[in-house]
Amino acid sequence: MISFKNVNKWYGDLHVLNNINLEVDAGEVVVVCGPSGSGKSTLIRCINRLEPIQKGELVVDGMAVHDKKVNMTKIRADIGFVFQSFNLYPHMTALQNVTIAPIKVRKLNKKKAEELGREKLTRVGLKDRINSYPAQLSGGQQQRVAIARGLCMEPKIMLFDEPTSALDPEMIGEVLDVMRSLAKGGMTMMVVTHEMGFAREVASRVVFMDEGQIVEVAPPLEFFKNPQTERGKNFLSSILSH
Amino acid sequence: MWGFYFDELIRSLPFFLKGVWMTVAVSGLSLVAGSIIGFICGILRAGKSKILRVIIGAWVDVVRGTPFLVQVFIVFFILPSAGIELKAFPAAVIALSNLTASFICEIVASGILSVPKGQREAATSSGLSSYQQLRYIVMPQAMRAIMPPLVGQYVLLIKDSSVVSAIGVVDITRVGWLTVQRIPEGIMVFGLVGILYFCVCYPLINLSSYLEKRMTVMTVKL
User: Fold this and answer.
1) Is some CB atom of chain B closer than 8 A to the CB atom of A116?
2) Residue ranges per domain, chain B?
3) A71 touches chain B (CB under 8 A)
4) pLDDT digits 0-9 by tens, B59-71
5) CATH code of domain B2-221
6) Among A32, A75, A160, A242, which residue has the least CB neighbours within 10 Å?
7) What ipTM was reported for this prediction?
8) How many angstroms away from the CA of A181 is the closest CA of chain B?
């Protein structure tokens, strides 16, 4: 579904992605972790070309994302993206937030789109907040609207960029619950997160990154019990010790 | 003495009203043309093309960095030597539209840039085209930042329009100049000129402060 082959990216002199090779199959849930500045966010932002890559091949659902001639609009419509800072549209209600892309990109008529929007908002537990504006919602609710916004495009892949990092602790659970149920429904997901409990429970594989490189890829139980590298060990002890 | 000139001034009122009409016509046409050009340039100035950004930026600097009176003279006196002859009225509208457009361009560009980058990223990720992003996501939010200074700019436009009297457009200011030659009571005549400008501007000033309050409330609410 997603295939990185020798992918490299630089910000000026900074080598943010260093020779990335990774295959993600349909239905897999891949959790990406690593210290800050390790390139995790950049990695998943490349998948829908929010960031272009400079070298290597990146193929998503059969489309060559690395090829500058490829029109990204169609691929992007099939990839849901959830941001750390939600990025809901503040001038629109929850329902308008989730229906704008189905109406304008998928060309659904308004009634069908709203039906779909209601269904997805209900699915993330926000049936009674359909007409609320983002500012009237808590952080956890906003992030769930953002997830519903992705789901309304009936995506083939969902990408999550630290979806719980901007949330108060008591709201993390409700967002992770939605993500868990998505994963169990067979959605292909890549999740950048520090929530190791979530990784342990639902990830098919954990990708550990450091300094722009993929250091380890392993099923969660193996990675958490027995990291193969020194850097992996250090990272785990630093995040699990507190 | 005052009484005599006052009656004279009252008799000149129709002339003054013609001046008001001329000021409104010049300002109104420039407002429309300047807004259209200003919005287009502002959107391009906040856009992706570096060449356009630089060209528009240079134009804005030149227009802002030269006196408006000189710009009016360039359009009216210097363009004819390049074969473009214009009457006073179209020359005035062109010069004033150009001035207004350059200011509105900056207001619009900074309004667009005030919308957080994440908004565009979210819209991009959903597959919305650049035009759709601008139309449905960016502009509605940018308008909150744009509206109050935009209306303020319209008030400035009306006041700046007095400069075009220098090339013979018979606006309120020009009527004042002509009248003061018959009625040598400068304070009275130009007092009236000032009052008339104020009458034209006042509704816009009110609109501006109303919008400013309303936009602030909306921002807080969101």
Assistant:
1) no
2) 2-221
3) no
4) 999 999 999 999 9
5) 1.10.3720.10
6) A242
7) 0.91
8) 22
